[in-house]
Amino acid sequence: MRRFLTVDDIGDLNVAIKEALEIKKNPYAHYDLGKNKTIILIFFNSSLRTRLSTQKAAMNLGMNVIVLDINKDGWKLESELGVVMDGDKPEHIREAVPVIGQYCDLIGVRSFATFENKDDDYSEKVLNQFIEFSGVPVISLESATRHPCQSFADLITIEELKPKKRPKVVLTWAPHPRALPQAVPNSFAEWMKKADVDFVITHPKGYELAPEFSEGATIEYDQKKAFKDADFIYAKNWSSFTEYGKVLSLDKSWTVDEEKMALTNNAKFMHCLPVRRNMIVSDGVIESSNSVVIQEAANRVFSVQTVIKRMLEGLK
Ligand code: CP
User: Fold this and answer.
1) CATH code of residue 32
2) Ligand 1 site, residue 49, Cβ cutoff 6 A
3) How many domains does the chain have?
4) Which helix (H) or strand (E) holds 66?
5) Is the CB of 273 inside a 6 Å radius of any atom of ligand 1?
6) Cα of 214 to ligand 1 centre, how many Å?
7) Which ligand 1 atom minimizes the distance to the CA of 50?
8) What residues make up the domain containing 252?
9) Which of 138, 182, 209, 260 yields a CA-CA distance of 20 to 30 A from 146?
10) Taking the C-alpha atoms of 143, 24, 232 and 206 in order, what is their torsion angle to the nearest 10 degrees?
11) Residues 136 and 252 in one domain
């Protein structure tokens, strides 16, 4: 395994879930695999869960871990070609990335959408330079368009908690004061469409995801109808794809609350975190016994540990 960016990189989902659950049962079983191997985690954006869970997963595999908050601790990077570098960016990404590759065996990168240019974001301009120029396997720790480590952890959580063989899973938009990327909902849609679930997306008009992610899912604009008989409610805000990066609505009637959860089949409440209470979800729902957000976050260790393990096996 040389890259982990999309659902297609993990292969058979049932095999991957089984492997992750085995790792969860015995996290140190492969401790020798990472001996004398180093992973560097590069963060262009803030993180709590991704940073800590990936460090923990790599340590469970016996690896050395280096974390770099590149905006704070590195040189400011130029990523355009052909520019005269007489501004505030002293290093080009075309030198920085291969240099980072000299110091490690695997790289994890977090680089969000900037919303400056939709084509640049959706072509994964930053992540692709790591893939092309680092010379080592690359794990996406959330890119402009996807968050595969999160979606894999979400799928593990659904597998652990599903009340029936083929549960109904609903991805619902909810309001947020700032423009957020589409990476988490894109990725969740991509993974759910391949999983053995009935998948429904609900959002106000104007919040349609890019067609490559929404195609094949059931879209329901009436949130209450969508919630009916759901086994899992996955809440997330995202900004508009069509009016790229814009916040079109702050409609609090989309907040997930107790009244809406009562329409479901006693659904579990999911969110990738961090979550804004009483914008995305009411205090009552997130603090209820049906909220599984902590279990989801815990499973971030085992999703990324499965990926790192496979990459290390590929280096042998
Ligand atoms: N869910 C998630 O990726 O959390 P962080 O942004 O804190 O890493």
Assistant:
1) 3.40.50.1370
2) yes
3) 2
4) strand 64-69
5) yes
6) 23
7) 8
8) 150-296
9) 260
10) 0
11) no
